Amino acid sequence: MGSRLAHTAGGEDRGAGIKFLNWSISHGDLRIAHFIGMHGLQVIPLLAYFVFKNVPLTFVAATLYAGLAIFVLVQALKGIPLLR
């Protein structure tokens, strides 16, 4: 995002977006992967403390969450929007 000075991959930054978030619905948007990854730093510890209270289960949840972040990043880099 920083080197290209744009949020989208595969098209122009200006275009239709999801309401409120303004994530692109016509091209891949790197902000989605950034959002998921950064908030994972908050979500995983909260889930571990309040919900799971179990180290192996927390590890599985963190791995799945990381997989989601990687999946969304790859989709965005391919130029595929989250919602069409």
Q: How is this structure best described in words?
A:
The chain is mainly alpha-helical and 84 residues long. The chain contains two helices and two strands, in the order ββαα. The chain has a two-stranded antiparallel ribbon with strand order 1-2. The protein is elongated and about 45 Å long. The two termini are 22 Å apart.
Describe the secondary-structure layout.
Blueprint: E1 8-9, E2 28-29, H1 30-52, H2 55-78
Antiparallel strand pairs: 1-2
Helix pairs in contact: 1-2
Shape call: elongated
Question: Are there runs of 5+ residues with pLDDT below 50, and where?
Answer: none
| End-to-end separation | 22 Å
DSSP E strands, number: 2
Helix content: 55-70%
* Lateral arrangement of strands in the main beta sheet: 1-2
- Total helical segments: 2
Strand fraction equals under 5%
Helix and strand succession? EEHH
Mean pLDDT: 87
Rg calculated over all Cα atoms: 15 Å
Query: What structural class should be given to the helix and strand makeup?
Result: mainly alpha
Main sheet characteristics: 2 strands, antiparallel
Pick out its properties.
84 residues; mainly alpha; two-stranded antiparallel sheet
Summarize the structure.
56% of the residues lie in helices and 5% in strands.
